[in-house]
Design goal:
single chain; alpha+beta; Alpha-Beta Plaits; 5-stranded mixed β-sheet; flat
């Protein structure tokens, strides 16, 4: 009887131990699952999670373009075309840099070199060519000088920094020889700075204002044009006659010498004839 009781107690204890061990294994598995699904953050991650790194972006380089054009076209009237060009120039803040015209009887033309702001280049050409009867040629050239700008500006910055350093050294120099050497170097650097500044100023002017060559002509009907040719003949004849008179006047010494020589020859001939007549008598 006692043996049966001992076996029953042993069985109950074994069952209780197995149940408690199962609960512990389940808890361990759940803990491991939680650790796998949501691992702890590394040190400093929670503090840095909301921080945003703002690296400075490089400043974009502004493109520098020099735009030039050349246009040749036929018009009805030179005077009306020039008036229109001046009007369009005024509206786009441009100006005439050079003017040349030829007023011949046939195919007279005018050549204008104008300058307009770069941003108004296309609009200006569009307005000017509205009244053109025929466009013979249209050439547009665009030159990118961005690299030149960057290079000159970098050199200019370095030269100015170098000049500043030499100025600081000059302020501390106490020997005449050193002062003269430093002043000579500063003078050379200043020349380079002024040359670079002049080049930048020129490029800025070329970029800001475009140059356009306008050549427009008026083609007139050709024919015999008797009246016009007769007028030209009279004009040319009178010019030739006046030129002849001027040449003759310029030769007055020869005329004087020839007249005196002729007078002496005639006088000698008359004397000779007179002597012969007296001898015959």
């Amino acid at each position: 009887m006692k043996f049966k009781i001992i076996i029953l107690l042993f069985f109950v204890v074994t069952l209780l131990l197995s149940c408690s061990g199962g609960h512990k294994s389940e808890d361990m598995e759940a803990g491991m699952a939680m650790n796998m699904t949501s691992p702890p953050p590394p040190p400093g991650t929670e503090e840095d999670a909301g921080a945003v790194v703002n690296d400075p972006l490089p400043k974009p380089i502004e493109q520098k373009l020099i735009k030039n054009g050349e246009v040749s076209f036929k018009v009805k009237s030179l005077a009306d075309t020039k008036q229109n060009v001046q009007k369009v120039l005024a509206s786009f803040s441009g100006y005439i840099a050079k003017e040349n015209n030829y007023g011949g009887n046939e195919n007279p033309y005018e050549n204008l070199i104008v300058r307009v702001p770069n941003k108004n280049f296309d609009k200006f050409l569009e307005q000017v060519l509205i009244g053109a009867e025929e466009i013979d040629s249209k050439n547009i050239n665009i030159d990118d000088v961005t690299e030149q700008f960057v290079d000159i500006e970098a050199r200019l910055k370095n030269k100015k920094q170098l000049e500043t350093k030499y100025q600081e050294i000059l302020a501390k120099a106490d020997k005449i020889e050193d002062i003269l050497k430093i002043e000579k170097e500063i003078s050379l650097i200043r020349e380079d700075i002024e040359a670079s500044e002049g080049r930048l100023k020129y490029l800025n002017n070329q970029v800001s204002y475009s140059t356009i060559s306008l050549r427009y002509y008026e083609k007139r009907t050709s024919g015999f044009n008797f009246g016009g040719k007769l007028g030209n003949a009279i004009s040319n004849g009178s010019y030739g006659f006046l030129s002849f008179l001027i040449i003759m006047v310029n030769l007055w010494p020869l005329w004087l010498i020839g007249g005196v020589t002729w007078f002496l020859i005639v006088r000698a001939i008359r004397k000779n004839r007179k002597k012969k007549m007296q001898g015959v008598q």
